[in-house]
Amino acid sequence: MKSILYYSIVFLLLFNSCSNTSEDNAKEEELTPDTMYFPENTSDYWESTTIAELNWNTNNLQPLLDFLEEKNTKSFMILYNGKIVLEEYMNDHNNSKSWYWASAGKTLTTTLTGIAQNEGLLNIEHMVSDYLGTGWTSATIEQENLITCKHLLSMNSGLDDSLGDDVSSENLQYLADAGSHWSYHNVYVKLQDVIASASNQDWSDYFNSKLRDKIGMTGQWINLGDLSVYWSNTRSMARFGLLIAAQGTWEDSQIIPQEFLTDATNTSQNINKAYGYMWWLNGKDSYHLPESQIEFNGKLIPNAPDDMFAALGKNDQKIYIVPSKNLVVIRMGEAADEDNFALSTFDNDLWGKINALIN
């Protein structure tokens, strides 16, 4: 006959096993997108959690904040599972002031393209000329008709990227066949014209009704020459980041088609592996940078998680999405060091500080 001690040990092992399994399952359930917290659209209230509750390293918070302030940051937010963990304002900025998204706002155009396609207004596989007519570039009709809406999303239209920001037809000149050359080009804004034409609405009206107002964002598009740049407060950028982190859903509504968003956040062409539909992708074995045809080996941001993808804007405007950790990280401000188009050494340095906090 086995002793009482034996059965006691077995019982304790089983009890602990069941308890651990329950805790693990609870943790997995907490981290799924369908359990994310979403702030109300008509209220300033946004639920929060604390660094202590998440068992992050509180000793490394102040070094992160000091670094951000030294690097000309105006605002910084971290969301975990939709809840605010950090929301900091510095360098004469506050929660009501607007700041420009720069090229991080390219992903807003991506998002509206997916929404418009889902509504049957356009097809990204179709020629841009189908929506804008011929002559929107200075290329021949044959060359121009090679360019699809998808090429604008993927930055491989083949148009010359060395001629500046002007997107008039005279300045959109043929360099290579569409699909054969990757270049970071402002021609993407032609997608806004495509959407306006296909929807028979002003671009900003369509944007406001289909995205901004649905998730409680504020802000507006401001025309700077041929470009339309989005300005908003920091929480509006965070709301957009949360929408993306939740796989295109906002509460019970699928705002962005999930299949399109999956395509947008994976490699979109075979030249720059670290680029989707205007989203930058970490964890690839090589990448290209704006205004360069050089292929760099290694990950885009080595200190960041491999599954991280990002909206990156001039002078270090950042939206980082990390699905594996259910994190959304926002940074707005002046250039951390020197002026830059998107990626800078600040990204890797910042992720070193973030890692020290969350790990």
UniProtKB/TrEMBL annotation:
Coiled coil: none
InterPro entries listed in its UniProt record: Beta-lactam-related, Beta-lactam/transpept-like, Diverse_Enzym_Activities
Pfam families to which the protein is assigned, alphabetical: Beta-lactamase (PF00144)
The Beta-lactamase-related domain, residue ranges: 75-332
Signal peptide start and end residues: 1-22
MF terms in GO: hydrolase activity
Keywords from the UniProt entry: Hydrolase, Signal
Name of the featured protein: Serine hydrolase
Species: Algibacter amylolyticus
